[in-house]
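input
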Amino acid sequence: MIVSQVNVFEPSKSYHNIWSCLANYRLYARLYVHFLFARMCLVNNIFMEHALSHSDHAEVTIKLSLPSQLGYEKLVWYLIAWCGPRLRLGASRIADLQTAICEACINAIEHGNQAQPQLRVEVTLHIAASYIEAVVRDEGVVKFCPSNVSPASIEQKLAGLAPARGMGLLLIAQLVDEAAFVENEAGTGNCFRIRMHRVEDTVAASPVTAA
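output
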């Protein structure tokens, strides 16, 4: 198995002080995310090109460690986009995978880690011959409870006929082949697994379940 690991940290306080003088902080945040991804690709480009080109025969694992701050989930989006042509998925399936993993990261940041930047969200992308799997782990300030998620449909939630909580999980379930909370090997925190088969449209999307 081939493994690549990247740890992403927040900019230092000195950078925050400099950039806080700028009115368009959101632009800086986007540029910083672009910079992080460019640096990540620069460091791993040769390694990843070789690994992914042989992913039909060897399993490839990519690990990202992100701070619990909204915006950093875009690194996962860019990573999937960069890997996209090598994944043997159609464009629509790649977009679905991007959306599903990013939504899982947002859930981990906002709910699991309660948006506390010092806590980490660990994303493991595993590329096998027949499937692509993403595992998103948080530190579990708030543990996922299945009883807190309404069984209502997305349509009912959008119409205001049911609580909006859990809509992200329903969206994920519609986009991928498998999606479920699973036991966290670390023993603490929430662990959410997403899987998409590399042969397009072979398996219908399954509902989100708690393992």
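quick obs: The longest strand covers residues 60-67.
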